[in-house]
Amino acid sequence: MSNSPRPEFETISDPFGVLVYDPIEQIRFELHTSSSPTLRPKSVDNYQFPVTSAVTFSTDRIVVPKLLGVYGRNQNFEIVFSWSGETERSASSRGASYLEFDVLPIKLYLAVNSPVTISATGSNTVIELGSESVVTLGARSLHERPAGTITVPDDVDATMRAVSLLGSALKTTSPERSFPTLRGHPPTIERGEKFSVSDGIERPDTGVELVIPPTREYVYPATSLAYYLGAKVVPGTSPRLVANGAEYELDGPAGYETEVGRALQHLFFLDCLTRTEGLYQMPLHERQQVESRIDLDYAALYEMPLAERLAAYFSVPFELLETSSPKWHLTTDVTPTPENVEVLPFIADDLSLVRCPTEPKKNPTRAPPTKIGDFCRGTESESESEPRAMPPDRLTVEPEPTDSVEHAWVGEGCPLGSNKVTLTSLQRRIERTAPDRSNIRIRVVCNDEAMRAEGIVKEMYGFRKLVDYDVEIAYDLTTTELRDLLASPIDFLHYIGHVDYDGIQCADGILDCRDIENVQVRTFLLNACRSYEQGTELIEKGSHAGVVTLSDVSNPTATKVGRTLARHLNVGFPFRVALSIARKQTLSGYEYITIGDGGMSLCQPQSGACYYGHVSRTDEEKYLLELRLYVNQQFSIGMYNDVLLDVTENVYLGSGTLDTFELTAEELDGFFELESMPFEYDGDLYWSDDITAADLC
Hints:
Elements: E1 8-13, E2 16-22, E3 27-33, E4 40-42, E5 53-64, E6 70-73, E7 79-83, E8 91-93, E9 98-101, E10 107-111, E11 116-121, E12 124-140, E13 149-152, H1 156-164, E14 188-191, E15 196-197, E16 208-212, H2 216-219, H3 223-229, E17 232-235, E18 240-243, E19 246-249, H4 256-274, H5 285-290, H6 298-303, H7 306-314, E20 330-334, H8 344-350, E21 353-355, E22 361-363, E23 396-398, E24 406-410, E25 414-415, E26 419-420, H9 423-431, E27 440-446, E28 469-475, H10 479-486, E29 492-496, E30 499-500, E31 503-506, E32 509-511, E33 523-527, H11 532-540, E34 545-549, H12 555-570, H13 575-583, E35 592-596, E36 610-617, E37 623-630, E38 640-642, E39 651-653, E40 656-663, H14 665-672, E41 678-681, E42 684-687
Parallel strand pairs: 13-14, 16-17, 20-21, 20-24, 23-25, 24-26, 26-35, 27-28, 27-29, 29-33, 33-34, 36-41
Antiparallel strand pairs: 1-2, 2-3, 3-5, 4-5, 5-12, 6-7, 6-9, 8-11, 9-10, 10-12, 11-12, 13-15, 16-18, 18-19, 22-23, 30-31, 31-32, 34-35, 36-37, 37-40, 38-39, 41-42
């Protein structure tokens, strides 16, 4: 288990219940009881499920303030019933010793000694016990850390040995490793003069080999596949995957990088189908979609050793599954330099596809437009008689298009329309310590009188019932005040004002972030012209992720992007996903990019993952809801997703489009009431808590 700080418990009184707080992810979640509970700490040494802290208390009723999936397991951990938030059906059992809650930002388990009945009341999940009895509530954070470090010299053979050891983090080689919680964070890699490995890091004995030419252009793209399979990476002239005597060529007509990515997606998807024969025997939508196309004995596959199972998977043509497998969540371009070897464990942890752009398409820095009808967010000192500061020699690159939902860039250059990731920002994922507070601190700074109308973004934060926000807005900060603010432990800074290549505009002059030594602001938006260089300094000096601009942006564009971004961050969208949605709301949105660890979220979504809908009308006065799901660092690729609609009993795999549902107006409104969710209708963006089906005409 992780040695991170453990979840904490405390009683609440309005209503009565238990508050669970995760100090790593800053998540608060409540369970309500019929009377005030008395909490007693419980040792987790003999607790059957993987938890890091637990308490006991007496109650006859527990109310979870959201609809969610609940699995009932007996003493042998076999599922005896499952309930997925149906409003029209209850579930009862006398044989369930443990209840496992599905799709929460904190993993929770409940040990019970009484018959249970589970039902829905409004948007609540209600657990009725046969009588008042003692229950044990166990919790664990979904945050994990690497178990050690691999030191490598700058030669490719050492890099291949290191990539072979990334699979040491796998908690199982069964198909269940397709669950992100059973993969674990790989050991970190650092450069050094001599190859060495921390104690306890050993590759699992999977019998799988990845044979590839010994160059970085071949090793780096194999990172996630080697990690997921626990494969040994060995040199050879023809790239191929070898398992149980069978060989799968990785150098087909589409090219090596594409074939490696297809192999990972293919094997991962079939693992997700096969695991439905194991501990989580769920009605999986994607399995139903492909059963008529492929003839596989999933029960037999589940019992096979890994290498033997892979050989069977290879017998299924990729093309038969392509239309039903999840849209892959992330592709990362990594320039194949010795320095970038240190990002590979983080890429594997994300299970990202990898490409090596040896010759990226380059563009010069865009010149500011000669005339813009709306004023721009440069510094106030700029005028016709006073030329603006010129940018440094910035290399701008255009990444090749990708089919994945998100894209990241590691290497030289500023990537248009992408996420510029740095090693230091990735390392802060695992270096982060628990905060000494439970709320999320947001500061909105407006340093220009003409932009005060945008201060309304303050109202975009804090809608969440189960997230405690501390939001303040300040106007006309001086350089000293802004410097002090940047040195404060703030979760998100939303800056509105003027920036140029020399610094950030303040009431008494310019603050150049190159002159700042201490930055503790975790994430930020510098919503101003040409803020890339200043934002990059914040990332290098302590911030985790941010959103910046590459050139001039007009004030209407900046205001629209800022408001849209704020609201998506408020409900848990990762930074690079939130920005990709916000960019589409304006023609000039392409000037914004994410820098740092763009997979971060300001807070966790209420449902674990982020929903995005497309709504249209039918001729029969009904609505078609196409539901899209975005994963994040806590709800990653491979998780089950319950869609809380009566029209389906299936569970789905994220990411991308899950399904399209035909709903009545009442059913659509009921779904929208579950949580705040963005959706498109007739080309416009709306929010589910601002509108009803009757307004869509």
